[in-house]
């Protein structure tokens, strides 16, 4: 095996596509913001959006005032890209520096959630992002729902790609006296900040305590 | 002023576009992964990429083995979307739940960095992502550079959009006894993990110590 072969093998092993639906679901469920890409007048168009997976559906949420979202609600082909950056990978040479990450791209045609289902969609989205919150606050009014544009993307076989890197740097010279390794990255929550009009004595609700403690 | 007017005003104030170039640079420099979107055969195409801003240039880095990247290296129109999720925003009603974030989209035509400049580009990218690292390790060999595809996007006036939300939830009923507020999110580094072949006594280099302490 030549050095080149070996390097190629390491690259293939450490950074690879995954075909398991469970891997896709785990990545989608671990993040809450993705980048929605579509084509408008032949040009690429991208916007970050809050989303949640509910079974085979990915619910995305926007305001009908958000002109941009209107472009994609009419059956336009779209791609939702979700990335979790898990670490910076430092090799013993510049070429092999990399990142550990989990990423997913789901492709499909965006569809609007019908108005009479947007209430349920908003609750499903909320339950996925902040479990329990929907039972603590009033639901949306009819007027608010009318101003809500819920769109969804269906996860279809062959319609998604998962790529993961979760490994030490490529070995390079393998010198034990030259530091190489990974700097792990992680998202944490800080103490909740109450809104200005909320009393200091108002208890932090269960849903928020759960968010903060789930790290 | 009607309630609707007031809500609209609050939305406008709390979530807004910013036209200041400094805001764009700050967001681009605070992140290291973006989603590159382009159009391939009329369909949207999106992939996460490491990037760094150097002045008006955004350098993106990939392997020439990454078939996907080849599509976009030939002057194709592209959009790079970068998002930092800063917090979950919990209102007193489901409709006004939101997120605090900083986001930027840079649009333009991707160009390949000429081969004789790819060494410099790799060093610039490294210096931006991990300051000091390029002086600690050997640079890339000619063979490695040949396998590196460096592409760049130029930041042009009118070619970018910044949107930021950094505020408490919309006031809603304003009841002081109902908790509403923000759960801040933040990315932290964990202790560096040395590669398997590196001695436990090999000192962690300055560049890594700086990464870990910059939080």
UniProtKB/TrEMBL annotation, chains A, B:
Gene3D superfamilies: Electron Transport, Fmn-binding Protein, Chain A. GO terms for molecular function: oxidoreductase activity. Keywords: Oxidoreductase. It is an enzyme of class 1 (oxidoreductase). The keyword Repeat does not apply. Pfam families: Pyridox_ox_2 (PF12900). Its EC number is 1.-.-.-. The keyword Nucleus does not apply. Coiled coil: none annotated. InterPro entries: Pyridox_Oxase-rel (IPR024747), Split_barrel_FMN-bd (IPR012349). It comes from the Bacteria. This is Pyridoxamine 5'-phosphate oxidase family protein. It comes from Rhodococcus gannanensis. The lineage of its organism: Bacteria, Bacillati, Actinomycetota, Actinomycetes, Mycobacteriales.
């Amino acid at each position: 095996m030549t050095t080149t072969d070996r390097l190629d093998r390491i690259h293939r092993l450490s950074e690879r596509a995954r075909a398991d639906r469970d891997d896709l679901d785990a990545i989608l469920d671990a993040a809450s913001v993705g980048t929605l890409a579509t084509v408008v007048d032949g040009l690429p168009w991208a916007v970050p959006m809050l989303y949640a997976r509910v079974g085979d559906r990915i619910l995305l949420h926007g305001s009908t005032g958000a002109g941009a979202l209107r472009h994609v609600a009419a059956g336009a082909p779209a791609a939702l890209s979700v990335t979790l950056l898990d670490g910076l990978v430092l090799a013993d040479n510049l070429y092999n520096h990399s990142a550990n990450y989990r990423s997913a791209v789901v492709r499909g045609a965006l569809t609007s959630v019908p108005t009479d289902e947007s209430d349920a969609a908003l609750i499903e989205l909320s339950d996925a992002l902040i479990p329990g919150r929907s039972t603590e606050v009033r639901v949306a009014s009819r007027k608010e729902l009318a101003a809500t544009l819920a769109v969804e993307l269906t996860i279809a076989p062959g319609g998604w790609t998962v790529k993961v890197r979760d490994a030490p740097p490529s070995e390079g010279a393998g010198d034990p006296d030259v530091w190489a390794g990974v700097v792990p990255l992680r998202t944490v929550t800080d103490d909740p900040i109450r809104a200005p009009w909320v009393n200091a004595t108002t208890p932090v609700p269960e849903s928020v305590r759960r968010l903060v403690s789930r790290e």
